[in-house]
Design goal:
One of its GO terms (molecular function) is ribosomal small subunit binding. By secondary structure, the protein is α+β, with helices and mostly antiparallel strands. It has five helices and three strands. Strand 1 and strand 2 form a beta hairpin. The protein is elongated, with a radius of gyration of 28 Å. It starts with a helix and ends in a 16-residue tail after the last helix.
Length: 149
């Protein structure tokens, strides 16, 4: 479980990296810049694992090429991030980028569940005449106050 400090630093890095990719460094990415789906910071705040989500356009998956571009320009991204967060953080963590494939995994699981064939439940046997003659069943008493009802 993350500490409050880790959560605050993660949130700050996520916001600032998203703004950095959209405003300051859009020239690095062909098409749309990647989104930041999640940031996890180590307990010593020295390493930040950043998960990038890339939208697929026209059936192509530009995720791998975006990830390579980000990794190749990692030093410039960290320096630009340092300029943005220098008043909030003493040391900017080392940035490690990963491709977030949770949307593709969710789509695959949706397809698997959609392809499942679940047979209908068997019908219950009809009640016998002895059950109907006995009348409605009485509810069990849970508390002494139920007597008045």
């Amino acid at each position: 479980m993350e500490s409050k400090r880790q959560q605050k630093v993660s949130s700050l890095l996520q916001q600032e990296l998203a703004a950095l990719f959209q405003r300051d460094l859009p020239h690095l990415f062909p098409g749309l810049p990647p989104g930041i789906s999640m940031v996890r910071v180590s307990p010593d705040l020295g390493v930040a694992r950043i998960y990038l989500s890339v939208l697929t356009v026209g059936g192509t998956n530009p995720g791998e090429e975006h990830l390579l571009l980000v990794k190749d320009n990692g030093k410039a991204i960290r320096q630009a991030l340092a300029k943005r967060v220098r008043s909030q953080l003493r040391i900017v963590p080392e940035l490690v980028f990963f491709l977030d494939d949770s949307a593709a995994y969710a789509a695959q699981m949706d397809k698997v569940f959609g392809d499942l064939h679940i047979p209908a439940a068997p019908e219950k046997p009809e009640s016998s005449d002895s059950d109907a003659a006995a009348g409605p069943t009485k509810r069990p008493r849970l508390f002494a106050d139920d007597e008045n009802e």
